[in-house]
UniProtKB/TrEMBL annotation:
Pathway: Amino-acid biosynthesis; L-lysine biosynthesis via DAP pathway; DL-2,6-diaminopimelate from LL-2,6-diaminopimelate: step 1/1. This is Diaminopimelate epimerase. Belongs to the diaminopimelate epimerase family. One of its GO terms (cellular component) is cytosol. InterPro entries: DAP_epimerase_AS, DAP_epimerase_DapF. The record marks H161, E210 as: Could be important to modulate the pK values of the two catalytic cysteine residues. It is an enzyme of class 5 (isomerase). Keywords: Amino-acid biosynthesis, Cytoplasm, Isomerase, Lysine biosynthesis. PROSITE patterns: DAP_EPIMERASE. It is found in: Cytoplasm. It comes from the Bacteria. Its main location: cytoplasm. It catalyses: (2S,6S)-2,6-diaminopimelate = meso-2,6-diaminopimelate.
Amino acid sequence: MQLRFTKMHGTGNDFVVIDATRARFAPTPALLHRLTDRRFGVGCDQVLVVEAPSVPDVDFDYRIFNADGSEVGQCGNGSRCLARFVADQGLSDKPRLRVRTRTSILELQRRDDGQVTVDMGAPRFEPRDIPFKAAERRARYALDMDGQRIEFGAVSMGNPHLVMEVADVDTAPVGTLGPKLEPHPDFPERVNVGFLQIVSRDRVRLRVFERGAGETLACGSGACAAVAVGQLWGRLDPRVIVQVRGGELIIESKGEGEPVLMTGPAQTVFTGELEWNE
Ligand SMILES: N[C@H](CCC[C@H](N)C(=O)O)C(=O)O
């Protein structure tokens, strides 16, 4: 079998995108591994599968698989790439699209400057919505990890995020603390671990150890989560530039209960065909 795919990235978070609008694509773990593995396959942080809509007033369904094969319900950088992909493939010429994932409905808007703005929905802070095992909702939680007290915010953007403040992302313990917090049992569905450096009220730096993928060069939902938590702490303005390792994202929100808008680039790198006979 020959499987056509498109390689894309949004601020360095990279994807293999599959057009499943005309033929169902139900990937096996082995096929996902061939698509995500950077040595034995194509290589990407997530596989994005674009499908015909399954409910009214939605333009596309959108499935997201992490590098470890886990299927999840949100990928912010990926949604910008989906907006670019469906236009380039002639699947839709609408400048505004509604796409449905297993947890969220996202509104995507292609802009004249080539960037894409995504309405990521409102952040959810209730522990049961994250999900996070906590007796009550708090602005700051604490965990003891290897004798160290870790303080953080927790929020869902349609996927779970832990956000901890650090003095400098360049020296943050992403590689050591990330792998310990990602599978923490207090997060029953695991968690994306964000390391947030607040430079000013309208500029932050962020690194994310992603659930099911490890550290990526950018995490769109992570940028939204970090700004939502920073605003909850009273530390950030309604419009924030989030500097990630792969570029910059603009995150805007009027605060709790309000939708979070993310604006950033989406690039196509190449198209290819994978020889596959499982
Ligand atoms: N690792 C995430 C999915 C991808 C999110 C990220 N790539 C983004 O741009 O939002 C999770 O398991 O929830």
